[in-house]
Amino acid sequence: MFNLVLINGCGGAGKDTAGRLLLQTLPHCALLDIKALAQTNPWKFDEYHLGLANAALIVRNYFEAGFPTVVFTGGLSSQERLDFLQSLLPPGSRPLYVWIDVPKQLRDPRRVLRNRDEADKVQYLDTVDAVFTDPGDLSVDGGKYLRIDAEKLSPADVIARIQAELSKDC
Question: Which of 7, 117, 142, 145 has its Cβ near the most Cβ atoms within 10 Å?
Answer without folding.
Answer: 7
